[in-house]
Amino acid sequence: MVARWDIGDFVDRTIGGWRSQRSVHHLAFAHFEAVTSTIVVSNISPTDERVIDLCKIYDCNPDRVVSPFQMTWNGESDWDGEISQGQTILVPIPTGQYQGKLLRDQGYAETIPAVGEYYFTEDNTFVLTTTYDRAAAEEKIWFINDNVRCRVSLIKTSGGSGVVTASFSSEIRQN
Fold first, then answer.
1. DSSP β-ladder status, 148-157 and 31-43
2. What contacts 30, CB < 8 A, 6 or more positions away?
3. 25, 35, 50, 98: which is deepest, by most CB within 10 A?
4. Are strands 135-145 and 126-131 parallel, antiparallel or unpaired?
5. Does the domain spanning 7-173 belong to CATH 2.40.128.20?
6. Are 138 and 153 in contact (CB under 8 A)?
């Protein structure tokens, strides 16, 4: 049996460069999209000014921050050939050994600051749910081994009753 992870374990395994192939089903448009991207995840200091600022926005004690990190991405879609790129700061605030809040300066479904709730299942799947103004997102990430991980994401209507977009990503560590 594999030891159960906490947020520090998950972030340690996530740090590095990843090559991602994502299949996206836009249910509202009855359209399929393939996105190829590179993702770089790096540690940042809990005392970094951006971490402190996010804690202030959400009235969280910066002393409770564990393993904050930054994620940058650069991707290309086959739908319209559009290149997407960006970065976000992610600040975990544990509320228990296997769950907590994840503060972000930019959300997944909407590009606004967001706070989500995360937890780990017994098989170490990371589950993140985030409610936005106009949508809700659910994301699950699990590792096949140290260098391969999978991610599924659902974007739902704001009430959470309808699925707008569903995606699956396979990601391979590059470094």
1. unpaired
2. none
3. 35
4. antiparallel
5. yes
6. yes
Q: Mind listing the pLDDT tens digit for each residue in 106-161?
A: 765 556 778 999 999 999 999 999 988 888 899 999 999 999 999 999 999 877 67
Determine the 3-state secondary structure of 52 from DSSP. Answer: helix
Q: How far apart are CA 82 and CA 174, in angstroms?
A: 23
- Do the beta carbons of residue 126 and residue 153 sit within 8 Å? no
pTM reported for the whole predicted model: 0.91
CB burial of 26-63 (b: ≥16 within 10 Å; e: otherwise) equals: eeeeeeebebebbbbbeeeebebeebeebbeeeebebe
* Vertex 23: Cα angle to 18 and 26 (nearest 5): 135
Please, where are the H alpha helices in the chain?
Answer: 7-14, 49-57
Residue 69 pairs with which residues in a beta bridge? 43, 90
Quick one: DSSP state of residue 148? E
